[in-house]
Backbone:
């Protein structure tokens, strides 16, 4: 299994669960990508490019350094590897990144609709606004710049225009939970929008209070 067996297992377990639950658009697909930072190093473990999740094995997960040099693994790392490395560089307290193509966040991605603060739990866990990252083609340095340009709001989730979702966490469990929370709130918000009725958002003073509480947590 190599030196980084636990990290590879963490990435694989999360990828398989998300795939089985429709987060990549199809169980047999290979869209999206997941990575974890390997503690006390400049290494990350990341899903490979073009391999179906349902047939992925632990040893298919790539370990690379911050210059994208391979350390372990026999496959080509995800096409979005530069995006993951850019996020880790800009948000040093983040330990895991999950990029998915789930249905409801994808709907919001094509109508360019950010998610306002709608529920205490979501606002506290992922942030008081889920912003839209402007479109650039997958794997491009322009997309890396567009994502990095949004990271200073210290939110844990973003929607990439005409593409999909992005969730961060201090570890794989937090990033995974945020991926689930994002898709849940995207589904609720989309469903509410289709009613044509007025949508109530959290009051301004509640948003301010939640932002204050989020700031008191260790830096994100
Ligand atoms: Zn993608």
Residues:
């Amino acid at each position: 299994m190599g030196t980084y067996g636990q990290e590879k297992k963490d990435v694989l377990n999360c990828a398989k669960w998300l795939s089985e639950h429709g987060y990549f658009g199809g169980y047999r697909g290979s869209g999206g990508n997941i990575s974890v930072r390997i503690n006390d190093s400049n290494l990350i473990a990341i899903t490979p490019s073009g391999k179906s999740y349902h047939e992925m094995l632990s040893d298919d997960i790539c370990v690379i350094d911050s210059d994208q040099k391979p350390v372990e693994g026999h496959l080509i790392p995800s096409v979005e590897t530069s995006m993951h490395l850019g996020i880790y560089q800009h948000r040093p307290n983040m330990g895991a990144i999950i990029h998915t193509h789930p249905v409801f966040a994808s709907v919001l991605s094509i109508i360019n609709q950010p998610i306002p603060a709608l529920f205490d739990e979501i606002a506290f866990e992922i942030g008081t606004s889920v912003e839209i990252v402007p479109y650039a083609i997958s794997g491009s340095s322009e997309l890396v710049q567009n994502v990095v340009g949004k990271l200073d709001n210290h939110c844990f989730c973003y929607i990439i225009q005409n593409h999909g979702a992005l969730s961060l966490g201090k570890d794989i469990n937090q990033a995974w939970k945020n991926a689930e929370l994002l898709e849940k709130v995207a589904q609720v918000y989309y469903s509410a929008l289709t009613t044509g009725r007025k949508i109530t958002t959290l009051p301004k003073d509640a948003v301010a209070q939640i932002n204050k509480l989020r700031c008191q947590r260790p830096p994100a």
In short: The CA atoms of residues 37 and 44 lie 4 Å apart. Strands lie at 33-37, 43-46, 62-65, 70-72, 96-100, 132-133, 157-160, 164-169. Residues 172-195 form the longest helix (24 residues). Residues 31-32, 99, 101, 138, 163-164 surround zinc ion (CB under 6 Å).
